[in-house]
Sequence to fold (153 residues):
Amino acid sequence: MRLVGVLLILGGLVTNLLGVQAQPSLNVEHGSPTLRSQAAVAISLPNYPLKEGIHLFGQAQSPGQFQTEYILFKMHHNRVMGAFFMPSSSFDCFFGTVEAKKLKVSVMATYEQQTYNHTVNLNQYHPIQDISNNDLRILDVCRVDAGNTALEY
Fold:
């Protein structure tokens, strides 16, 4: 029984370190207890601060997937400027701030020519390392479109 208690404690420590929600269960078959762990599918991202620079997040884990939403932005001193887009489609520029893992932005809608406020939880997106030349072009357009409204990025 001591071995089972130690395994339950160790299982809990590994669970906390990895950020995975696991539900250990004790199974007794033929008088011998065994430990089973059922890990949840969703793993939350650690709450580390984003670094200065250009970031790409997507609903998919790789860039360029059609009918998939992406968030591209440049961060400088917790201020962000970037765009929401889908490949081979239009994009909407935004500017604002980053707080924890959330973007609080003002979006400049392309077709409506209006600005509205929006909050995005980055934990719902996958970080993507590959930044393309087209991504940089989108950022340049948004920087120019922001004009005097956005602070220097």
In short: DSSP finds two helices and nine strands in the chain. The two ends are 60 Å apart (CA to CA). The longest strand covers residues 32-43.
